Fold this sequence. Notes:
about 425 residues, Rossmann fold
Amino acid sequence: MIKVIKYSGQTADELFGKRDEITYNVEEKVKAIIADVRENGDSALRKYAAAFDGYTGSSLEVSSAEIDEAFAKIDKKYIQSLKNSIANIENFHRKQKRDGFEIDMGDRIVGQKVTAVDKAGIYVPGGTAAYPSTVLMNAIPAKIAGVDKVYMATPVKADGKVKAEVLVAAALCGVDKIYKMGGAQAIAAFAYGTETVPKVDKITGPGRDYVATAKKLVAGIACGIDMVAGPSEILVLADGDSNAEFVAADLLSQAEHDKIASAILITDSESLANSVVLQLKKQVERLERREIALASLETNCKIIVTDDLLSAVELCNEYAPEHLELAVKEPFKLLDKVKNAGSVFLGYNTPEAVGDYFAGPNHTLPTSGTARFASPLGVDDFVKTTQYVYYTDEALKKSADDIVSFANSEGLGAHAESVAVRVRK
Length: 425
């Protein structure tokens, strides 16, 4: 079921296989769905809701009564847990907010202003599980950024009901409207707008093949997106003092997400590696999502034994995991050597689940090795910068020769003349 491999200089691709950000063969189908939603709006959304989800209701929007019903249904203790989590997430993301700047040189001024997008659409999956934590991680940074309107899309089943926990999370985070739509059609609706669903400036949130492909197709054309996410993954780097039971539990916490999720252990202890194998076999049998976790373990779980921790860190940097646990005695010493990871969890008592729900840092992270160049979702995803320039007459005269020289070197005479005509006056 689980492979234990002795590291002897193999590359990450050789050990774990090549990962593509999106490996699904659905692009033509998704293009057709997007075109249909652009052309037919709400009627297309209703058609796909019926075909894919069994929902035939007329309303595409969650009502205030449905939200009130959700609050009445949910345990007060859980609502308080949501509020505690929201406080931590807000505290972390407020630190990300940045201001513009201005440089005044007397006769000329240059600067940059930071402005939030007007409208954001967040996608919350509703497939094998529904995730109120996804609502928090997407809506909170959007609101902190200053986004005027935050909308949410989530698929529903035949009964037309959104999971109560998801509705409560959305209400607590100040989501303005919630739409009963999923898949590529939801992304298309946010990207281009329909009679009911507004066109947004930025779409964020995770999804599987159809959603990821739709985001890829509309990105940079109709709107912006956060990222094109692949299967979720965890890499645990553990030393010989780690608790095998804890490590196995952490690997399974990721494996239960999806059959194509990846759970990897790299350790300098062969004894720990063997103990973790035994723990995985034991613990997986107790899981409610056993079938999903087993499929993930059998396909994508590997345990690598290295000679030392430094070699393990180098391998981690090459793999660039979405989640990285440093389950070692002195994690902060290794943290300095970590270059490529979405989010890092330090020490023996910081499982990934702490970050998924509660600690404050975002859980929407770069996958499939894109942590080499990409970052977690944050406030910056919901803002844009605008530059500005002001020159007086004297300042333009001082710079005219340089600007004209540049323009002429590029064969753009009109550019040069737009400066020269002012200097000649």
